[in-house]
Design brief:
Elements lengths: L4 E6 L3 E6 L3 E7 L2 E4 L4 E5 L1 H4 L9 E4 L2 E2 L2 E2 L2 H15 L9 E7 L5 H13 L2 E8 H8 L10 E6 L4 E7 L2 E8 L3 H16 L1 E2 L2 H11 L12 E8 L5 E7 H7 L1 H17 L2 H10 L1 E4 L8 H9 L3 E3 L6 H11 L1 H6 L3 E5 L2 E4 L1
Length: about 350
């Protein structure tokens, strides 16, 4: 009676947890802070993210997920255990739950099994995986079970998944290991190259969110922001003012990689489904969908309508929760990979 259906968007940058009947109940950074000398876990999530770049030598802030998959199994288990503890109470904490987790479409069987094992270790009664573009399409209320082409571009922190979904499965897809983190890295490099200023990833992420734009030709120059860092020539702290044009120029390379991948998926799409995409448009999900002008730039490059989904950043988490309610249908199409304590199987 205490068991819950829990959906998890196990993102490289952020973990979202969905509980049936409650919606998205947790949104925390995918970070764990640990004292290396003692092995003690000091903080998880938001409290740990604050420590990145600010810790003494014996304290490390670890990001256990890389490119959408597990890079540090032990820390992932610690993080998941803590997050599930945060969203449950009383007898729910000792009950075993059904858990659905989103993974990149391009994840290998080894990477999928690592996620399933982590879910079982933190107390799941049954663990299921669903590919993130399918979960995103479900969360965006796209009719993925119907015989029509639904194109979704899910831009996460570590990966961008581009797919055409129809009849409960992915017909064509590409998983690109480019996402929000690559945008941040590109901004850090641009500031070093253009202004001789060293900034941290968190500063780059904040600039992207506040004044970010993806199209240098149409980026507004009146949107500005003060950023602080270390002068690479003098070695002293320095503050400069940047605008949206700077961010647009900085993210040119990862943005072009995503556009090229969208075109490749469209080139491989069967003609009938391509006609559906023209009629229905392209839906953008994930945190990267909020980058100003991205949808408009896709329209310009593909001549196909593109729009940002409602609650784009939560679509995968919402989709994992909804998928648990339609588990039998998804099993029939082979859209989920499942595990119990007795073993693993593709369903």
């Amino acid at each position: 009676m205490w068991s819950r259906d829990i959906g998890i968007d196990l993102g490289t940058a952020t973990v979202l947890v969905f509980i049936k009947g409650k919606g998205v109940v947790l949104r925390e950074p995918s970070v764990v802070a640990m004292d290396e000398s003692t092995g003690k876990i000091l903080a998880v999530g938001e409290d740990a993210k604050i420590m990145i770049g600010r810790t003494p030598g014996n304290v490390v802030a670890i990001r256990p997920l890389r490119d959408g998959v597990i890079a540090d199994y032990t820390m992932t288990e610690v993080m998941l255990r803590e997050f599930i503890k945060k969203v449950t109470s009383g007898m729910e904490r000792v009950a075993r739950h059904r858990v659905m987790i989103g993974v990149p479409a391009g994840a290998t069987d080894v990477e999928r099994r690592a996620v399933l094992e982590a879910a079982l270790e933190v107390g799941a009664k049954e663990a299921y995986l669903i590919e993130e573009p399918m979960a995103a399409a479900i969360g965006a209320n796209m009719p993925v079970g119907e015989p029509v082409g639904n194109m979704v571009v899910d831009i996460g922190g570590g990966t961008t998944d581009i797919a055409i979904a129809s009849l409960g499965g992915l017909v064509v897809f590409e998983s690109l290991r480019v996402g929000g983190d690559k945008f941040d890295e590109a901004i850090v490099r641009y500031m070093r190259r253009q202004y001789n200023l060293a900034i941290g990833d968190q500063t780059a992420e904040e600039a992207k969110k506040q004044i970010g734009a993806c199209d240098a030709e149409h980026a507004p120059t009146d949107r500005t922001m003060e950023i602080k860092g270390r002068d690479l020539i003098q070695g002293l702290p320095r503050q400069i003012t940047i605008n949206s044009l700077d961010i647009a120029r900085a993210v040119e390379e990862p943005k072009n990689a995503i556009i090229a991948a969208i075109k490749r998926v469209l080139e491989k799409t069967p003609p009938e489904l391509a006609a559906d995409v023209i009629d229905r448009g392209i839906i953008l999900t994930g945190g990267g969908a909020y980058l100003r002008g991205f949808a408009e730039h896709i329209i310009e490059e593909t001549e196909i309508n593109a729009m940002v989904a409602e609650s784009a950043g939560e679509c995968v988490a919402l989709g994992t929760g909804i998928a648990l309610e339609s588990l039998d249908k998804l099993k029939e199409t082979g859209a989920v990979y499942s595990a119990t304590r007795r073993g693993y199987r593709r369903r």
